Amino acid sequence: MATNAVIILVLFLLLNLFSFFLMRHDKQCAKKNKRRVPEKALFLSAILFGALGGTLGMFLFRHKTKHWYFRVFFPLLMVLQAALLGYLWSRKLIG
What we know:
The chain is mainly α and 95 residues long. It contains 3 helices and no strands.
């Protein structure tokens, strides 16, 4: 595997782990009536290639699932990001 592909894979993994644990943290704060993570921050982490982790965290922790815009846009972002990465990979722009 090319060096740039490894770097992109590691960045993708880290961004998704960050989004996943950000959802977990916000859920814990919600349970304890503590200061919450702003929804803008949750969306920003998903937009910055963390949609897979955000979506998994949302459904695993049952957090933000009542908000239609999270249920719709997190999975949509995930699909778009996967398509973009697949396109870049197929064009040999990464990997």
